[in-house]
Amino acid sequence: MSSYNVGILGATGAVGQQMLECLQERDFPVAGLRLFASARSAGKTIEFKGEKVVIEEATPQCFKGCDIVLGAAGDDIAKELLPHAVEAGATVIDNSHAFRMDEDVPLVVPEINGEDVKWNKGIIANPNCATIIGLVPTWPLHQVAGVQRMIVSTYQAASGAGVPGMRELEAQIAAMGKGEPMPEPSAFAAQLANNLIPQIGGFKYEGFTSEEMKLQNEGRKIMHLPELRVNCTCVRVPVLRSHSESITLEFERDITLEQAREVLASAPGVKLVDDRDAADAHDRFPMPIDTSDQDLIWVGRMRRDISNPNESRGITFWCCGDQIRKGAATNAVQIAQLLVK
Description:
Structural class: alpha/beta
Largest sheet: 7 strands, mixed
Radius of gyration: 20 Å
């Protein structure tokens, strides 16, 4: 098997760190590893496969010699630096929003549209975390009955705001436990501990936020469904890691609940946890505490959409998935695996 020189832009962040773990766990054929971050992190070391790798400052010239670059930086840095990686001869898999809706950039979830990597022109985009978590179980049901409409509420963990978000929630919970003054929020618009924040991203269209519009816009591109209709509400919840979603699907063809369960039980990337009679709650339905630190999207609470005039064409379910892993880092490494097959 050939091996590849791999670079990670944003290597010190939560997603960059998880990319390192995923490369190692999946035994990706890394010939050489380059880690890029801000000037303040340059010179520090990170261990990979028992060896210490020195972090380099991210600059337009830093990507020389890289075959694959995984992007785990913000939109502005991605736009500024990653085109230079392509010029240097690398194929980029970027986790930011910078290139997702570009017509010349494939937007890929390997379980859904892995073939799209073939038409990349140097950059492949990783979708939004909530988009990935919602579409992985939606896609196999679409293949059976043809999804036309999605009504989604997301319950997004602090990990969606990276390390600062997780640290802020931990600090707030600690302060509450000790009876100390609550630290002022900085990663979020308001206190997250003991609270819910029904806004993620800025308001963009008809009162919907940027995060809410991503599920429709990215879903249309990933599933090649330009007419897909999505109504989404995104909420930040006081959970450290792993996003949850309530999803109602409307189909163009009939599908029974038994068919839907059978499809999801064998779908790639999905784990069906839907035993409502189980004595242990962990076996009855998915929960963030169970779905953190793993790569599958757990699906449960499956039932008919009784609000649909045609009940045979509506399914509702609950799903959970690790935002940092499958919602970001793992999906990127899976794309890299498709590239080198």
